[in-house]
Amino acid sequence: MTRGDAGDRAGMPGTTPEGSGRNPREHGAGASNVTARRACSRPETQRMMEAVVERGNMTAALRRVVANKGSAGVDGMPVEALKPYLKAHWPRIKEQLLAGRYEPAPVRMVEIPKPGGKGMRQLGIPTVVDRLIQQALHQVMQPVFDPDFSESSYGFRSGRSAHQAVLKARAYVEEGRRWVVDLDLERFFDRVNHDVLMSRVARKVEDKRVPGLIRRYLQAGIMARGVVSPRTEGTPQGGPLSPLLSNILLDDLDRELERRGHAFCRYADDCNIYVRSKRSGERVLASVTRFLEGRLRLKVNQSKSAVDRPWKRKFLGYAVTFHKRPRLKVAGASIERLKAKLRELFRQGRGRSLGQLIEELKPVLRGWVNYFRLAEVKGVFEELDGWIRRRLRCILWRQWKRPYTRAKNLMRRGPGEARAWRSASNGRGPWWNSGASHMNEGFPKRFFDTFGLVSLLGRLRQLQCGS
User: Fold this and answer.
1) How far is CA 54 from CA 59, 192, 206, 281, in A?
2) What is the structure's pLDDT at 36?
3) Are the C-beta atoms of residues 249 and 127 closer than 8 Å to each other?
């Protein structure tokens, strides 16, 4: 039984990972730095609202909001109109913020499909003025809270990334923790308890105006179809402050897992705990569920949470192989999600030129391979490259429509006249023909390279070679 497993079983504090015997937050130079930060930040937390509305902070927040662009809120004001609006109205807004009287506008509800097409996710779009104020709050609060966050927390933090979380997860599996407790919090952002969250904010923020403003943001209504509905729980996704608030709340989970000595990685509400046996994992899942539902009033989705082998689960879009030294690979669900997105682009591109369609594909393909550049199993990248080229050949075949046009275009690309006519009139469908030898020979990889089509495998090799 591992130290973490034993601590969890007894319900008592365990040692920290790697057998240090002390919480890494409480010893060494790190503790001195944290203490210094706390001492220096105390006056700032007492008069935090003055720091929020300070000119330099607001200017930085304005630059960030304008750069992020985004949709208008319930007032219809675009980002481009924010600067002129502030010139006329900022003195009044600033006075209301300092007096603790500012009232946020309701958020505009937008629904987007969840990954994999399973249901819809609700986003709350604040007005651009509220986005500005939330961004200014975030810039002042982040330095106060972030230094004490767990080393195992990777989401929405400066200098930390999903890639770091994935690499750490692989390291845990390589150490011999070959079972994972995959926690899924049911509708996390919709179920955040306001009282529990605000009590965590108040631990470090002594300026009462700041928690009061945050609570008003949490309770601002949601406008859907012209009707404003009140909000009694949850923090709407879409505002600059929501990611920090989620880390503040879930830091309690991190502290509890550290107290028990568990090896874990958390990115926002996606948390994996790595253990050495299935039995230990089942105990951990049960006890952590009790903690989340009792202490933080969050609900664990039992149908999606599981104790399983890491190579049978995914984490942040990646999976690992079952080898003693596990290798990272792209999870199957991530591949299907990319294909679904590309299919939609292919449908939209049937009436466009091949060059226009490939230009639309470029940012999608580059972004995808940049994210999955840690993958060590590369066969899927080659398969996807072939699948994409076949889809493009299929579009060409559809666009040609008539046998005469098909034969003429095939003859231009190399096949002789007799073969071109046989192929053009073979009676087979577009998908069959797109994979047939006459289209592969006439439109090989180098043909698509001339249009600048991104090769996933080629780009992956470039990224992994550091070029």
Assistant:
1) 9, 30, 18, 49
2) 34
3) no
> Which stretches of 158-193 are DSSP H helices?
162-174, 188-191
Residues 337/342/343/347 CA torsion (nearest 10 deg): 150
What is the Cα–Cα distance from 425 to 422, expressed in whole angstroms? Answer: 5
**Model pTM?**
0.82
Tokens encoding 77: 């004001």
Q: Give the contacts of 46 (CB within 8 A, at least 6 positions apart).
A: 206, 207
Residue with tokens 């639309």: 360
* Cβ contact 154:160 at 8 Å: yes
Measured between alpha carbons, how far is 185 from 92 in angstroms, rounded to an integer? 41
DSSP string computed for 337-359: HHHHHHHHHHHHTTTS-HHHHHH
Q: What is the pLDDT of residues 369-393, one digit of tens each?
A: 999 999 999 999 999 999 999 999 9
What's the residue count for the chain?
Answer: 467
Under 8 Å between Cβ of 265 and 157 = no
Residue 467 identity: S
- 3-state SS class at 228: strand
Interatomic CA distance for residues 8 and 194, integer angstroms: 28
A 10 A CB-CB count for 330 gives: 24
